[in-house]
Design brief:
Shape: globular
Oligomer: single chain
Strand content: 25-35%
Number of domains: 2
Radius of gyration: 17 Å
CATH superfamily of the largest domain: K homology (KH) domain
Strand order of the largest sheet: 1-2-3
Length: 140
């Protein structure tokens, strides 16, 4: 379900110069990074890249969604971590992404961890945005 412009609470803004081999910055100065293609894609690998930035955003958002779900389920997720691995590769349309979300939740059993992960995947805005567009695998 889409939100309306009037429902927007915050809008992030970033500007890229020279695409994958340049710079990305936000107007508030909180993010200002050099981007370069990774060595695996023929680049220098000296800067960050869009896939790393996407992985950072997705993992942070998913961890927050996990917290929302855990509070509803009264589950202790203290000490938990969420890692997002974002792969890029060629497909029929040029290039595409694949994501693996891994969580370590030390204070719950494996079945509970898996259930929390599945529920977080349903409420995470990044998961909603990518659903049906890219493969997202979940792992505990």
């Amino acid at each position: 379900m889409s939100i309306q412009q009037s429902d927007v609470l915050y809008t992030a803004v970033a500007t890229a110069e020279n695409g994958r081999d340049g710079r990305v910055a936000t107007p508030d100065g909180q993010l200002d990074v050099v981007v370069n293609p990774p060595k695996e894609m023929g680049g220098s690998g000296t800067g960050t890249n869009p896939e790393q930035l996407f992985a950072a955003g997705y993992s942070a958002c998913f961890q927050s969604a996990l917290g929302v779900v855990a509070r509803k389920e009264k589950a202790d997720i203290s000490g938990s971590t969420v890692t997002a691995e974002v792969g890029i590769g060629k497909n029929d349309e040029g290039f595409g992404l694949i994501v693996k979300i891994s969580a370590k939740i030390p204070n719950v059993d494996a079945a509970t961890a898996r259930d929390l992960l599945e529920k977080a995947h349903q409420v995470c805005p990044y998961s909603k945005a990518t659903r049906g567009n890219i493969t997202v695998d979940l792992a505990v």
